[in-house]
Amino acid sequence: MSDIRPPAGADAKVPSPARVYDYLLGGKDNYEIDRVVGDRLLSVAPDTRLVARANRAFLRRVVEYVSGQGVRQFIDLGTGIPTSPNVHEIARKTNPDAKVVYVDNDPLVKVHNDALLATDPGVITLEADIRDPGNVLGSPEVQELIDFTQPVAVLMITVLHFVGDEHDPKGLIRTYHDRMAPGSFLAISHTSSLSDPEAIKQLAMATAGTPAQSTFRSPEEIAEMFAGFEILEPGVTRIQEWRPDMDYPDTKLNVQAALGLKG
User: Fold this and answer.
1) Cα dihedral: 136, 141, 147, 149 (round 10)
2) Is 10 part of a structural domain of the chain?
3) Which domain holds residue 92?
4) In-domain check, residue 132
5) Could you tell me which of 48, 140, 195, 241 has the fewest CB atoms within 10 Å of its CB?
6) Is 5 a domain residue?
7) Where residue 154 sits, what CATH number does that domain have?
8) Cis omega (within 30 of 0) on the bond before 107?
């Protein structure tokens, strides 16, 4: 596999969560260091690619459900490299006028998002760090597209485990919560401390000190992130078990997922 030339601001020698995820999904928009991290995880948890696919299926089911509740605005935080069907493609099957903001801090993701996603009216991409919600919510592009007096769905799909405790993930969620109108939704999927210990160890060793370093949290800690939201059934659960439309086996890498409603 030949690596593409890194865009300005991207470092091909540092693993990126978005590019590792792209590799696990079978994509080609990644560098050798991303494949090293992915292969290290696959060596102890060979079913991790199944987890990545289950995560995309969770995203689809969430967007379908939220769209069915009449929500027409989405902010996808840590969107990653485009993988069809994308949020706007799913949402517009129900609501053709759905608006979507794709946010990621990886310059390579921004290049792909601009080329593949932001060509549709009502779809924008933003290069920003979700750990700075004021920068995301205060950006002119977001303020122009999103009407915060109306319900919005904020999607945090496999991204919060890259936010260490020192960056106060519950606090940054609270900032988004305070801007969201009643009837809004928050979706989270998050790697869990219920994962196989060896998989946790290997991933920690491979990503220590990099943007791909993960914090594995318990289901109880993940539930605490939904302060101010009503967690909908089936609650915080293994991602394969969140309103499944097919059977998934158990996996060594445990990812918990939930959807919350702001009353």
Assistant:
1) 40
2) no
3) 17-261
4) yes
5) 140
6) no
7) 3.40.50.150
8) no
Block residue for tokens 């935080």: 77
Residue 257 has pLDDT above 90, yes or no: yes
pTM attached to this predicted model: 0.88
Rounded to 5 degrees, what are φ and ψ at 261?
Answer: -115, 130
Torsion of CA 108, 26, 154, 72, to 10 degrees: 100
The token duo for 235 is 């609650």
Backbone angles phi, psi at 145, to 5 degrees: -90, -40
pLDDT in tens, 92-113: 999 999 999 999 887 777 777 6
Residue 250 lies in a domain: yes
Residue type, 262: K
CA dist 94 and 101 (Å) reads: 18
- Which single residue is written with the structure tokens 């991290």? 37
Q: What single string gives the DSSP state of each residue in 72-138?
A: -EEEEET--S--SSPHHHHHHHH-TT-EEEEEES-HHHHHHHHHHTTTSTTEEEEE--TT-HHHHHT
When divided into structural domains, the chain yields a total of 1
